[in-house]
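During the second year of the project, the team shifted from modelling isolated chains to modelling whole assemblies. The rationale, set out in the original proposal, was that interfaces cannot be judged from single-chain predictions alone. As a representative example for this report, we include one of the complexes processed in the last quarter. Its constituent sequences, exactly as entered into the pipeline, are reproduced here:
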Amino acid sequence: MTGLGMPIARPVSPALVVGRRRIRVVAACFAIAFVSIAARLVDMTMQRPSEPRVAGGEPVPANAPDPRRADIVDRNGELLATNMRVPSIYADPAQIHDIDRAADELAAVLSGVAADELKRRLRAAKRFAWVKQESTAAEQAAVLRLGIPGVGFRSTEKRVYPRGRLAAHAVGFVDIDNQGLAGLEHAAQAVLVGGAPSGKAPLVTSLDLRVQQVVREELLRAHERFHTKGAVGIVLDRETGELLSLVSLPDFDPNQARRASADSRKNRATGQTYELGSVFKVLSTAMALDSGKVALRDGFDATEPLRIGRHVIRDDHAKKRTLSVPEIFMYSSNIGTAKMVFAAGGGEALRGFFERAGMLTKPVLELPELAKPQLPKRWVDITTATVAFGHGMAVTPLQFVDAVAALAGDGTRVPPTLLRRAPDEVPPRQRVIEARTAEDMRWLMWLTVEKGTGTQVRDTGYLVGGKTGTADKFNPNGRGYLRGAVIASFVAVFPLEAPRYVVLVMLDEPRGDAGSRGLRYGGWTAAPVVREIISRIGPVLGVPPSSALARAEFEDRLLTAQRGQPGRRKEAWVAAVVARD
Amino acid sequence: MIALPRTDRTLVGSWWWTVDRVLLASIAALLLVGTILVFAASPPVSERIYGDGTRFIVKHIVFLGPALTLLFGVSLLAPRGVLRLGVLMLGLFTLLLVLTLFLGLEVKGARRWLIVAGTQIQPSEFVKPALAVVAAYLLSRRDGLQGAPEAVALVGLVLFVVVQQPDLGMAAVIGFVAGLQLFVAGLAWPWLAGLAGLAALGAIQAYLVWPHFQQRVDAFLDPHSVGYQVEQALRAVTAGGMLGRGPGEGRTKFLLPDAHADFIFAATAEEFGVLACLLLLLLFAFVVLRGLWGVHRAADRFTQLAAVGLIGQIGIQAVINMAVNLNLVPTKGMTLPFVSYGGSSLLALAIAAGMLLALTRRNARLEIDR
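Output from the structure prediction step:
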């Protein structure tokens, strides 16, 4: 090959020839490299044609159809829960040039967004991270002014509770994805999101915001004054079973439910059971009278403490004499009530009565927060005796109110509800006791308010019947009861001449102050709250003040009873208010 | 210019008839395309750095004049002139290169830049072509590979300084060019294998010593994360599709810190489409292969080796840059020759291209006195 036949005489060095050969190799290598790159280029466009070609390829998360939840309103159409379209701010971290700077700038204009936390989230996410969900138009404008690439907005539907804490436990709240988490929002989830997406009819509750407002206000005052651990206020329309008010304290703002403590989110009215104490005597007395084995005139010896096995049942301020049924009720005698129940059939009879009143099973209501009653395992004598005066059986305040509603009216009950019922929607009434017994019960409850432990509730302008309760609190951490810690309660029915509304106020561990004479008893702590509630909601509900005639009927019956008890001193009936129920 | 008669024996006349006009046209086309793309890709970066979107465009055009002048001027030289220029450049810029270690402007942890008379220059860019020419001379001075030790020693010295900066991209290109020249000079295959092993060792060493290098390799090997710039580049390429979003419509350039320089290829893909990128790729391939074809006819070893070195330098830079843009290799800061914005890079490449044109002229040969 060396120069043979080549036109140039100059000899070509062997090294130059080797070089030429190798240059061909180099050319081939470069050609392969270029072809690979070309292949890669084509491959990239062919394989990923689905990548969005708009707005910098921002990955828009699948925008699931945001189901518009129906509004929730009170019985008069006042808004309790509604929706607002608000911008939510998100970011594609991959598109943000300087995450630190972007996070600092965003945190500066967005309330409730911490720069450090945002940085961490933006770094952790690959292509999508929320910067702030449920922001405001003003904040959206501020973020737009920042002009940070990779930050975008989605219009989302935010659940708003215009009344805030007012009906927090009943209405409940939703999570960030608008799924009901508590209250009606959870229980009625399917109803709220079902049906046509627009023009949905609101969910009408049984609540009356005017009543709810009063109950919460008065309850909150007591809650703060007596430093209670919790408080419950319930107003039930016994005609229809509608709950006009359901308050549990402490409460929370459902607009910021995630920040609320678990304790404040707890619905004490329906989701917590309590040993309610002497208010239970309303039930045991009604049972005894309804059994036909005990009459109002009957007397029971309360001279000695009642011994059952190794247990001794005492009265706190024992009268040490024989007491009539009205006296037992008025003075809230434990011995007398227990003996009365035994006379009426004991444990079996009491259990059967509770069953009829719907107190042995979990309450039924349109709420997820419902607690099963805690019942005695066996209805032996000692258990029966204690349950008769409200210990050894724990129920939700709701269930108790439901039972009282039956006893204080005509002896029938309607399942309670949180949704408005038209008159024709009221389910058939179930009889719990005879109408005659219910009439006796009303008179006994009136007596308690007029002459007994409930005199704090006298001056409302209405004929009110009620019963006080002060229960020692069971020690959850050990055996026995906590000393000094009580559940103080008062249950009332008004107007007695045509009983319609049942009001319960329950205070968990009130600490007495000077105004209550240092006493924590239901008669001094819970009863005044009930008085305020009744005198304020009576006019709102359109209840006319009780007439003198109606009052006279109850007075007459008292006088008749007194006359029918010859030999008994008058003072027995008009005795000074007993300090302890 | 076509009017020049073949009999014209003036400097320019003989140049016109002997120079590889096709290669010249291709390089001119690359410069033109580069200018257009700097127009397209640089404003956001410029805006970000200077608050003025036109800064890079103006500078690029200002450099274009001197670059074209240098290209033309250098291509007029005979091979001996090229050698002299190479020696001169190597001496001057190696000195400056050493100075960068002490006086250099520190940018992102590396000292690569010197400020001379108010402008930043990157001496290593100029050292690159000069070294290729001088190494070629050292190799061709003796028969066979007898000149190799001297050439290797010289390259090793320059490499040492470059690594001190540190500028691994530059070192890789210089090493590749030297290896290419040794290969063409006829280095036996076992030696080549040894050289490749040495390069691999160097890479491993670099991986262990420099955290940023380690990070980039790790990012490349991790299938779930490619670095930020590469991710943006990939999105730009896919977002553009075959025909692109259209001139000025690109968005990635707002997010790519180096849209005007190292990632101009991706910015091109987004605005002008993959088709345009393929044409650009074709242009580079043409320049490299046409250049190699020219070198293939070289009459002496100096022109052969020097020209191969220069082509190799342009080719490898183009290949690495495009491969990085398409995430075929780990991120390595490297400009796309003639296309990317960059003063020093542009001028040095103009000189390199001028040398290449000079060396591929018909009848170009260097008589070496032994």
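The mean pLDDT of chain A is 83. Residues 212-574 of chain A form a domain with the Beta-lactamase fold (CATH 3.40.710.10).
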